[in-house]
């Protein structure tokens, strides 16, 4: 699999990353083990997780993988801090103490002495200089190799990057992670521009529109689907509205004409978009992962890309055209 530098850093990540949000709830240990084995065999290295995923279970599974034979140096492990779910409530705490406590917990669960990428999961109420000082501390202590931010809007991304660039002793950000797909192109308004200016790699989560772009929901909601579950139904609901229909149908039509699957088309559009270092996917079965890995040797031709741009919101101002 092709690797890309994460922004201006020395970290190289596979251009498809494995997301773990559903691990421990919809994806159990035997399947996780098979998914990671197939992913690494296919050349992938980036696994993105967080303490909030499964209440820490996703990180525990990665730790179990490392303890049962997956070589540590075969993975680029990215985790986050500052966002947890307690008692059904979402809590954002980006204070220095909370972030470093989160990191210590992550390292215990991951059974490793460092993570390759540590990200602030969300913008919080703590002063940004306090939040970012935790990143500097983690890198200086060898607990994290590189750092980034997640779910920051454009001005927040630029503010954080500028603060870290202002003095030589601070650790420059390597990345910004944000939702980006044919159904979620808001990142093009300001985030991608900020990432480009500050040389940050973009990690695009939910590259397949939270699953809506796979075409699985074109004729309803299957009973065994993520959209039908109590815990993930809310996650899919915004993209199962009539306003998404034209984009989903266009992806399916392109897939039919190219002898591809809708998931492959949606993935390639994100994977090869400007500033994207890695498109994050969350397959729940080895067959779905195999389908996505098959897209590695394929590329969408410019007319198809332009047509998908047009139907999903208009031209991408960052795309270089011949």
From TrEMBL:
Highest taxon above the source species: Bacteria
The NADP-dependent oxidoreductase domain, residue ranges: 15-311
GO CC annotations, alphabetized: cytosol
Keyword Oxidoreductase in record: yes
Keyword Oxidoreductase included in the entry's annotation: yes
Gene3D superfamilies: NADP-dependent oxidoreductase domain (3.20.20.100)
InterPro entries assigned to the protein according to its UniProt record, in alphabetical order: AKR, AKR_Detox_Biosynth, Aldo/ket_reductase_CS, NAD(P)_OxRdtase_dom_sf, NADP_OxRdtase_dom
PROSITE patterns tied to this protein: ALDOKETO_REDUCTASE_2 (PS00062)
E.C. code: 1.1.1.-
Gene Ontology terms for molecular function: oxidoreductase activity
Keywords assigned by UniProt, alphabetized: Oxidoreductase
Listed name of the protein: Aldo/keto reductase
Organism: Arachnia propionica
Gene: yhdN_1
């Amino acid at each position: 699999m092709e690797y890309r530098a994460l922004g201006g850093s020395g970290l190289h990540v596979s251009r498809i990353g494995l997301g773990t949000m559903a691990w421990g709830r919809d994806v159990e240990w035997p399947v996780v083990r098979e998914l990671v084995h197939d992913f690494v065999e296919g050349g992938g290295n980036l696994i993105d997780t967080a303490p909030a995923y499964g209440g820490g279970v996703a990180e525990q599974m990665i730790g179990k993988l490392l303890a049962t034979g997956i070589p540590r140096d075969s993975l680029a492990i990215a985790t986050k801090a500052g966002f947890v779910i307690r008692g059904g409530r979402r809590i954002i705490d980006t204070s220095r103490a909370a972030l470093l406590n989160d990191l210590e917990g992550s390292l215990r669960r991951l059974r490793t002495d460092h993570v390759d990428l540590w990200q602030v999961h969300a913008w919080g109420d703590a002063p940004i200089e306090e939040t970012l000082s935790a990143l500097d501390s983690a890198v200086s202590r060898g607990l994290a190799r590189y750092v980034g931010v997640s779910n920051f809007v454009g001005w927040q991304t630029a503010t954080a990057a500028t603060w870290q660039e202002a003095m030589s002793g601070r650790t420059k950000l390597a990345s910004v992670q944000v939702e980006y797909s044919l159904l979620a192109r808001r990142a093009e308004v300001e985030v991608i521009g900020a990432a480009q200016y500050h040389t940050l790699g973009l990690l695009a989560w939910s590259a397949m529109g939270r699953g809506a772009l796979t075409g699985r929901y074109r004729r309803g909601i299957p009973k065994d689907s993520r959209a039908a579950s109590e815990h993930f139904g809310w996650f899919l609901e915004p993209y199962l509205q009539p306003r998404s229909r034209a984009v989903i149908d266009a992806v399916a039509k392109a897939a039919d004409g190219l002898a591809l699957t809708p998931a492959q088309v949606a993935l390639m559009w994100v994977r090869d978009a400007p500033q994207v270092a890695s498109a994050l996917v969350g397959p729940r079965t080895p067959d779905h992962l195999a389908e996505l890995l098959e897209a590695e040797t394929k590329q969408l031709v410019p007319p198809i890309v332009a047509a998908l741009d047009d139907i999903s919101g208009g031209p991408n101002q960052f795309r270089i055209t011949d």
